[in-house]
C-alpha cells in the first residue's frame, strides 16, 4: 500500500513560478496530479487482499494435517490469534473421524486492536482445511464435504455470516504428500562402496509434504484494513512458520524448538 505523502518541494516551487497565463487545461492537469495519491490510498481496500505461501516440510502429511485441523489449539501458537474455540463439529467422515465445523477466533494487531469473528470450517480428510466467513462461500465439492452440514443463508442461524469484522475471509490449507527417496549411498560416497564391495546399504526414504496456504480477506472497517496492511505481506509465511514449529514440537519435543530459537 502506498501511503499519503506531502507534495515535494520541487512541486511547490514549480507552482509558485506559474504565470497567470496558465491555461485551464494545465490547471486541471495539475489538480488531477494532486488528487492521485488519494486514489492510491483507497484502492487497497476496494477488494479482498490475497496471500499465498508454499513450503515442503520433512514430515508425514497425516501429522501435519492433524495439527492444521486442530483449530481449537490455534490460540496457543498461531500469530495474531489470541484464542480459538470450536463451537460445532461435523458428522463422522468416511474415515470415522469428526472435524471442526465452526470456530470462534479472537485476533489482534499491534496490541491495539482485538476483535472476534466466527468462521465456517470445512475439512477434506488428510488433504484440505478451509475456513470461510462473511459473504464468502466454499468452492469445495459437495462430495468431499458431505460430512459437514449445509451452511445456512440466514445470519441469525450462522454466526459466520453475521459477524461484521470481516466481510470476506477464505483460508485454505492444501496438503500433498510424496515420498522422498535420496540417491543411493554409492552415488553419495562412491569411495566407500569401492573399498567395501559387499556394502549395499542405502539411505532410507523420507516422507515429505507440500503445504500450500492461500488466504483472502477483507475487513469491514477501513481502519483495521490499514492496520493490517503493514503485516499482511508476511502473514502467510508467519502462519506456515508457526505450524512447522508446532509439528517439530510434537515430533521432537518442545525443548528442541526452544533450543533452536535461541540460535536464530
From TrEMBL:
Domain annotation Coenzyme Q-binding protein COQ10 START: ranges: 57-244
InterPro entries given in the database record: COQ10-like, COQ10_START, START-like_dom_sf
Domain of life: Eukaryota
Pfam families in the cross-refs: Polyketide_cyc (PF03364)
Any single GO BP term: cellular respiration
GO molecular function: ubiquinone binding
Segments for region (Disordered): 134-162
Gene Ontology annotations for the cellular component aspect, listed alphabetically: mitochondrion
Function comment: Required for the function of coenzyme Q in the respiratory chain. May serve as a chaperone or may be involved in the transport of Q6 from its site of synthesis to the catalytic sites of the respiratory complexes.
Family: Belongs to the COQ10 family.
Subunit structure: Interacts with coenzyme Q.
Name of protein: Coenzyme Q-binding protein coq10, mitochondrial
